[in-house]
Design brief:
The protein has five helices and three strands; from the N terminus they run ααβααββα. With about 90 residues, the protein is mainly alpha-helical. β2 and β3 form a beta hairpin.
């Protein structure tokens, strides 16, 4: 049996904008709209997450993105790398 709870919290416009930006930047918007799980290869990683996974410096990852070595998308002011793009990069593609 699932338990469903509704919580109402008053938020300022600035707080709502911050939450909306977070939802967009983390790639959660598509999940919320389509109500489906994002396939693993389509999940987006932050520059720092890719740096941690590869053992490279975040600036090196940023340089690789800017030079086209790693394919990435810019969401707001931050880069996001799909797991597929990371796999392609690791395989030298």
């Amino acid at each position: 049996m699932a338990l469903e709870i509704e919580v109402k919290v008053p938020l300022t416009e600035a707080q709502l904008k911050q939450i909306a930006l977070y939802i967009i930047q983390t790639g959660m918007l598509e999940q919320l709209i389509e109500k489906k799980e994002v396939p693993l290869e389509e999940q987006l990683l932050t520059l720092r997450q890719v740096a941690n996974l590869t053992g490279l410096n975040p600036q090196t990852i940023n340089n690789h993105i800017k030079s086209g070595i790693i394919k990435a998308v810019k969401i707001g002011s931050q880069w996001r790398i799909s797991r597929k793009a990371l796999k392609d990069y690791a395989n030298g593609e």
